[in-house]
Specification:
about 280 residues; alpha/beta; Rossmann fold; six-stranded parallel sheet; four-stranded parallel sheet; about 15% strand; globular
Length: about 280
């Protein structure tokens, strides 16, 4: 009889989307996660993570998924990555080594229809925010470019801007981008959020959960990059097994490959409007 496997996974929403691609190959495992909904359709037992992270804890507390206690004799596998692993390869490469799985399959469940009412095609946009728990100012794009993208998108789409802001915990950087609907207080559940990423005509924002989510659903995605490239460059956050055909990248002119969260990376992108408009017409419109 095989020894039960308990996986102490990562707690970020995006990291759990990456993890799904590997955990699908480990049926019957036990997984400590605050995002059990991500694993719908897989043979997984869920264990409470006990995380103190704000958004993660909120989802874990309101989740309807059944949590269980792991077997006392379970073998524990800890998943994580840092600067040393990312210096050797991508996020997916780090997970390959830890999971012992070489052929990840990047997908996500179908969580139903759009959670917003409109007769127009929807564009999902992520405003630039800063979070006290993980204050990575270097990674963020310049909010000016997100604002420019939003103005262009509103000519063709119903723009929905989503975030989970809270005083002193997470806040907007710069002015909020123009949108037809702002959902900035965590109004959407994780299943509604992913349904929005799935059914949207296009997704635009900085590096974060939208990258693995949109790629897994095949939704056209435009990533506006900031800095801290050692942890956030395209070759770090994607994988050759992903379908990247309709993914566009707005890269700063002097893209900074540092690994410092507080570094003053240069984020200037010349002719951003022209580049984004060209990508939009070639891939979405």
């Amino acid at each position: 009889m095989n020894t039960p496997l308990l996986i102490n996974g990562m707690q970020g929403l995006g990291d759990n989307i990456y993890q799904r691609a590997f955990i699908r190959h480990l049926p019957g495992c036990w997984l400590a996660t605050a995002w059990p909904e991500i694993y719908e359709g897989l043979d997984v037992h869920f264990v409470r993570s006990g995380t103190r992270l704000r958004t993660q804890r909120k989802n874990e507390m309101r989740s309807r998924v059944r949590y269980e206690a792991p077997p006392v004799d379970a073998r524990t596998l800890r998943i994580g990555y840092g600067a040393s692993l990312l210096a050797q390869g991508s996020i997916a490469d780090a997970m390959r080594k830890q999971f012992g799985v070489t052929n990840p399959v990047f997908d996500l469940p179908d969580f139903g229809s759009l959670p917003v009412r409109t007769s127009r095609p929807v564009a999902l946009i992520r405003p630039v925010t800063a979070r006290r728990e993980w204050l990575n100012q270097a990674r963020n794009p310049d909010p000016v470019y997100i604002a420019q993208a939003a103005r262009i998108l509103r000519r063709h789409f119903y723009v929905v801007s989503v975030a989970d802001l809270a005083d002193g915990e997470e806040w907007l950087v710069g002015d909020p981008p123009e949108a037809d609907l702002n959902l900035h207080s965590g109004e959407l559940s994780v299943t509604q959020l992913l349904a929005l990423a799935d059914k949207a005509a296009v997704v635009v924002g900085g590096v974060g959960w939208i990258v693995p989510a949109a790629v897994s659903y095949g939704t056209p995605l435009y990533v506006v990059q900031g800095g801290c490239g050692a942890h956030n460059a395209p070759h770090i956050i994607t994988d050759p097994r992903m379908n990247l055909r309709r993914v566009g990248w707005a890269r700063p002119d002097n893209y900074c490959m540092c690994g410092q969260m507080a570094h003053a990376c240069s984020k200037r992108i010349t002719q951003f409007d022209e580049k984004f408009t060209r990508w939009l017409h070639e891939n979405v419109l």
